[in-house]
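C-alpha coordinates in:
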Protein backbone atom coordinates (compact mmCIF):
# COMPACT_ATOMS: atom_id res chain seq x y z
CA UNK A 1 0.00 0.00 0.00
CA UNK A 2 1.03 3.60 -0.61
CA UNK A 3 -0.32 6.00 2.03
CA UNK A 4 0.06 9.77 2.22
CA UNK A 5 1.23 10.72 5.71
CA UNK A 6 -0.34 13.66 7.51
CA UNK A 7 2.19 15.63 9.56
CA UNK A 8 0.38 14.58 12.77
CA UNK A 9 1.39 10.98 12.00
CA UNK A 10 5.11 11.47 11.39
CA UNK A 11 6.01 10.35 14.92
CA UNK A 12 3.09 7.99 15.46
CA UNK A 13 3.05 4.26 16.28
CA UNK A 14 0.62 3.90 13.36
CA UNK A 15 3.27 5.02 10.85
CA UNK A 16 5.85 2.68 12.35
CA UNK A 17 3.37 -0.21 12.31
CA UNK A 18 2.44 0.53 8.70
CA UNK A 19 6.07 0.49 7.55
CA UNK A 20 6.86 -2.63 9.59
CA UNK A 21 3.82 -4.52 8.32
CA UNK A 22 5.31 -5.04 4.86
CA UNK A 23 8.44 -3.99 3.01
CA UNK A 24 6.12 -3.25 0.08
CA UNK A 25 4.33 -0.52 2.01
CA UNK A 26 5.28 3.04 1.10
CA UNK A 27 4.84 6.24 3.13
CA UNK A 28 4.24 9.28 0.91
CA UNK A 29 5.64 12.61 2.17
CA UNK A 30 4.52 15.94 0.73
CA UNK A 31 5.97 19.43 1.04
CA UNK A 32 3.29 20.19 3.65
CA UNK A 33 4.72 17.41 5.84
CA UNK A 34 7.99 19.36 5.89
CA UNK A 35 6.31 22.74 6.35
CA UNK A 36 4.58 21.66 9.55
CA UNK A 37 7.63 19.80 10.83
CA UNK A 38 9.85 22.88 10.50
CA UNK A 39 8.45 24.69 13.51
CA UNK A 40 9.97 25.57 16.90
CA UNK A 41 13.51 24.29 17.47
CA UNK A 42 14.16 23.70 13.79
CA UNK A 43 16.86 21.04 13.88
CA UNK A 44 15.31 19.05 16.72
CA UNK A 45 11.77 19.43 15.37
CA UNK A 46 12.66 18.24 11.87
CA UNK A 47 14.88 15.43 13.15
CA UNK A 48 12.05 14.22 15.39
CA UNK A 49 9.60 14.51 12.53
CA UNK A 50 11.76 12.31 10.32
CA UNK A 51 12.81 9.87 13.07
CA UNK A 52 10.45 7.04 12.07
CA UNK A 53 10.69 7.61 8.31
CA UNK A 54 14.47 7.64 8.68
CA UNK A 55 14.41 4.06 9.96
CA UNK A 56 12.78 2.90 6.70
CA UNK A 57 14.41 5.08 4.02
CA UNK A 58 13.73 2.61 1.21
CA UNK A 59 9.99 2.76 1.95
CA UNK A 60 9.68 6.54 1.75
CA UNK A 61 8.45 8.38 -1.34
CA UNK A 62 8.92 12.15 -1.57
CA UNK A 63 6.56 14.08 -3.81
CA UNK A 64 7.37 17.15 -5.86
CA UNK A 65 6.42 20.53 -4.44
CA UNK A 66 2.78 21.52 -4.75
CA UNK A 67 3.73 24.37 -7.09
CA UNK A 68 5.40 21.85 -9.41
CA UNK A 69 2.54 19.35 -9.14
CA UNK A 70 0.02 22.03 -10.14
CA UNK A 71 1.49 22.20 -13.64
CA UNK A 72 1.34 18.47 -14.33
CA UNK A 73 -1.08 17.14 -16.91
CA UNK A 74 -3.97 14.87 -15.98
CA UNK A 75 -3.06 12.06 -18.36
CA UNK A 76 -4.00 8.77 -16.71
CA UNK A 77 -0.86 7.00 -17.90
CA UNK A 78 2.01 7.65 -15.49
CA UNK A 79 -0.17 9.76 -13.18
CA UNK A 80 1.42 8.64 -9.89
CA UNK A 81 4.93 8.57 -11.35
CA UNK A 82 4.75 12.22 -12.40
CA UNK A 83 4.00 13.28 -8.82
CA UNK A 84 7.17 11.73 -7.41
CA UNK A 85 10.41 13.63 -6.89
CA UNK A 86 12.76 10.82 -7.91
CA UNK A 87 15.90 12.66 -6.82
CA UNK A 88 14.70 13.36 -3.28
CA UNK A 89 13.20 9.89 -2.98
CA UNK A 90 16.40 8.10 -3.99
CA UNK A 91 18.45 10.48 -1.84
CA UNK A 92 16.32 10.22 1.29
CA UNK A 93 18.75 7.88 3.11
CA UNK A 94 21.59 10.37 2.55
CA UNK A 95 19.34 13.20 3.73
CA UNK A 96 18.65 11.33 6.97
CA UNK A 97 22.40 11.01 7.59
CA UNK A 98 22.86 14.74 6.98
CA UNK A 99 20.03 15.39 9.41
CA UNK A 100 21.93 13.49 12.06
CA UNK A 101 24.99 15.64 11.33
CA UNK A 102 22.85 18.75 11.75
CA UNK A 103 21.98 17.53 15.23
CA UNK A 104 25.70 17.45 15.96
CA UNK A 105 26.09 21.02 14.74
CA UNK A 106 27.09 20.47 11.09
CA UNK A 107 26.57 24.05 9.92
CA UNK A 108 25.87 23.56 6.18
CA UNK A 109 22.94 21.28 7.02
CA UNK A 110 21.78 23.58 9.82
CA UNK A 111 21.80 26.47 7.34
CA UNK A 112 19.79 24.39 4.85
CA UNK A 113 17.15 23.63 7.49
CA UNK A 114 17.00 27.28 8.53
CA UNK A 115 16.29 28.26 4.93
CA UNK A 116 13.61 25.58 4.65
CA UNK A 117 12.06 26.82 7.90
CA UNK A 118 12.06 30.41 6.66
CA UNK A 119 10.32 29.36 3.44
CA UNK A 120 7.82 27.30 5.47
CA UNK A 121 7.02 30.26 7.73
CA UNK A 122 6.44 32.49 4.71
CA UNK A 123 4.06 29.93 3.21
CA UNK A 124 2.12 29.53 6.47
CA UNK A 125 1.89 33.30 6.93
CA UNK A 126 0.59 33.73 3.37
CA UNK A 127 -2.06 31.12 4.01
CA UNK A 128 -3.01 32.81 7.27
CA UNK A 129 -3.39 36.20 5.62
CA UNK A 130 -5.60 34.62 2.93
CA UNK A 131 -7.81 32.84 5.47
CA UNK A 132 -10.24 35.70 6.12
CA UNK A 133 -10.98 36.13 2.41
CA UNK A 134 -11.31 32.38 1.98
CA UNK A 135 -13.86 32.21 4.81
CA UNK A 136 -15.99 34.83 3.04
CA UNK A 137 -15.80 32.89 -0.23
CA UNK A 138 -16.66 29.63 1.54
CA UNK A 139 -20.04 30.98 2.58
CA UNK A 140 -20.77 32.31 -0.90
CA UNK A 141 -19.77 29.15 -2.77
CA UNK A 142 -22.42 26.85 -1.39
CA UNK A 143 -25.65 28.82 -1.75
CA UNK A 144 -26.83 26.27 -4.34
CA UNK A 145 -27.29 23.56 -1.69
CA UNK A 146 -30.63 23.21 0.06
CA UNK A 147 -31.33 22.85 3.77
CA UNK A 148 -31.93 19.12 3.35
CA UNK A 149 -28.71 18.71 1.41
CA UNK A 150 -26.74 20.51 4.11
CA UNK A 151 -28.23 18.12 6.64
CA UNK A 152 -26.84 15.24 4.55
CA UNK A 153 -23.42 16.89 4.89
CA UNK A 154 -23.77 17.33 8.66
CA UNK A 155 -24.88 13.71 9.09
CA UNK A 156 -22.04 12.47 6.85
CA UNK A 157 -24.48 10.56 4.66
CA UNK A 158 -23.81 9.68 0.99
CA UNK A 159 -24.36 12.53 -1.45
CA UNK A 160 -27.28 12.33 -3.85
CA UNK A 161 -26.44 12.52 -7.57
CA UNK A 162 -28.06 15.97 -7.62
CA UNK A 163 -25.58 17.10 -4.96
CA UNK A 164 -22.71 15.57 -6.92
CA UNK A 165 -23.82 17.35 -10.10
CA UNK A 166 -24.17 20.69 -8.30
CA UNK A 167 -20.77 20.24 -6.69
CA UNK A 168 -18.95 19.29 -9.90
CA UNK A 169 -20.38 22.33 -11.71
CA UNK A 170 -19.11 24.48 -8.85
CA UNK A 171 -15.67 22.83 -8.92
CA UNK A 172 -15.37 23.30 -12.69
CA UNK A 173 -16.09 27.00 -12.18
CA UNK A 174 -13.63 27.38 -9.31
CA UNK A 175 -10.85 25.34 -10.89
CA UNK A 176 -11.38 27.08 -14.23
CA UNK A 177 -10.52 30.40 -12.65
CA UNK A 178 -7.41 28.86 -11.06
CA UNK A 179 -6.34 27.32 -14.36
CA UNK A 180 -6.71 30.76 -15.92
CA UNK A 181 -4.73 32.69 -13.29
CA UNK A 182 -2.27 30.23 -11.72
CA UNK A 183 1.30 30.82 -12.96
CA UNK A 184 2.04 27.08 -12.85
CA UNK A 185 -1.19 25.71 -14.32
CA UNK A 186 -0.88 23.21 -17.20
CA UNK A 187 -1.13 24.89 -20.59
CA UNK A 188 -3.93 22.71 -21.92
CA UNK A 189 -6.35 20.42 -20.11
CA UNK A 190 -8.87 18.20 -21.86
CA UNK A 191 -12.10 17.18 -20.17
CA UNK A 192 -10.82 13.58 -19.98
CA UNK A 193 -7.76 14.79 -18.06
CA UNK A 194 -9.54 17.38 -15.89
CA UNK A 195 -10.44 15.23 -12.89
CA UNK A 196 -6.86 13.93 -12.63
CA UNK A 197 -5.23 17.35 -12.32
CA UNK A 198 -4.14 18.51 -8.89
CA UNK A 199 -5.85 21.88 -9.36
CA UNK A 200 -9.22 20.27 -10.02
CA UNK A 201 -8.96 17.76 -7.16
CA UNK A 202 -7.79 20.39 -4.69
CA UNK A 203 -10.61 22.69 -5.82
CA UNK A 204 -13.00 19.82 -5.11
CA UNK A 205 -11.51 19.42 -1.62
CA UNK A 206 -11.86 23.14 -0.95
CA UNK A 207 -15.47 23.18 -2.15
CA UNK A 208 -16.22 20.24 0.13
CA UNK A 209 -14.65 22.14 3.02
CA UNK A 210 -16.80 25.14 2.16
CA UNK A 211 -19.89 22.95 2.13
CA UNK A 212 -19.05 21.43 5.51
CA UNK A 213 -18.39 24.83 7.07
CA UNK A 214 -21.64 26.33 5.79
CA UNK A 215 -23.62 23.21 6.74
CA UNK A 216 -22.40 23.76 10.30
CA UNK A 217 -23.14 27.47 10.60
CA UNK A 218 -20.71 29.21 8.27
CA UNK A 219 -17.04 30.16 8.25
CA UNK A 220 -17.10 33.98 8.47
CA UNK A 221 -16.60 34.08 12.23
CA UNK A 222 -14.13 31.20 12.42
CA UNK A 223 -10.60 32.04 13.53
CA UNK A 224 -8.16 32.37 10.65
CA UNK A 225 -5.77 29.67 11.85
CA UNK A 226 -8.59 27.09 11.71
CA UNK A 227 -9.31 27.98 8.10
CA UNK A 228 -5.58 27.79 7.32
CA UNK A 229 -5.33 24.38 8.98
CA UNK A 230 -8.27 23.18 6.90
CA UNK A 231 -6.54 24.39 3.74
CA UNK A 232 -3.43 22.42 4.71
CA UNK A 233 -5.61 19.36 5.31
CA UNK A 234 -7.08 19.85 1.84
CA UNK A 235 -3.62 19.34 0.36
CA UNK A 236 -3.03 16.10 2.28
CA UNK A 237 -6.48 14.86 1.24
CA UNK A 238 -5.88 15.82 -2.39
CA UNK A 239 -2.58 13.97 -2.59
CA UNK A 240 -4.13 10.93 -0.90
CA UNK A 241 -6.64 10.57 -3.75
CA UNK A 242 -3.76 9.61 -6.06
CA UNK A 243 -2.61 6.78 -3.79
CA UNK A 244 -4.20 4.26 -1.41
CA UNK A 245 -5.34 6.60 1.32
CA UNK A 246 -4.42 9.03 4.08
CA UNK A 247 -2.67 8.17 7.33
CA UNK A 248 -4.01 10.74 9.80
CA UNK A 249 -5.53 11.08 13.26
CA UNK A 250 -7.60 14.08 12.15
CA UNK A 251 -11.23 13.01 11.70
CA UNK A 252 -12.03 16.02 9.53
CA UNK A 253 -9.09 15.39 7.19
CA UNK A 254 -10.08 11.74 6.84
CA UNK A 255 -13.70 12.72 6.21
CA UNK A 256 -12.55 15.18 3.55
CA UNK A 257 -10.44 12.52 1.83
CA UNK A 258 -13.27 9.96 1.87
CA UNK A 259 -15.80 12.48 0.60
CA UNK A 260 -13.48 13.57 -2.20
CA UNK A 261 -13.00 9.97 -3.31
CA UNK A 262 -16.76 9.43 -3.13
CA UNK A 263 -17.48 12.39 -5.39
CA UNK A 264 -14.70 11.57 -7.87
CA UNK A 265 -15.97 8.00 -8.17
CA UNK A 266 -19.60 9.07 -8.60
CA UNK A 267 -18.84 11.79 -11.14
CA UNK A 268 -16.07 10.20 -13.22
CA UNK A 269 -16.51 6.42 -12.96
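Residues out:
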Amino acid sequence: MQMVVDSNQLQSPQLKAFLEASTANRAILTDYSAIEALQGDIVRSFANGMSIAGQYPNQIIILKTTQSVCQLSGRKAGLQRRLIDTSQTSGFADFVQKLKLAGSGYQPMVDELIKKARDADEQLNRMLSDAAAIAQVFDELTIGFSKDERKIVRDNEPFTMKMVDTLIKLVIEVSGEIFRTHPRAPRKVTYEQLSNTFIFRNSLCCCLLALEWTANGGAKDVKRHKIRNDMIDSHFATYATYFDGLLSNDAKALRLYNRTKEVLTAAFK
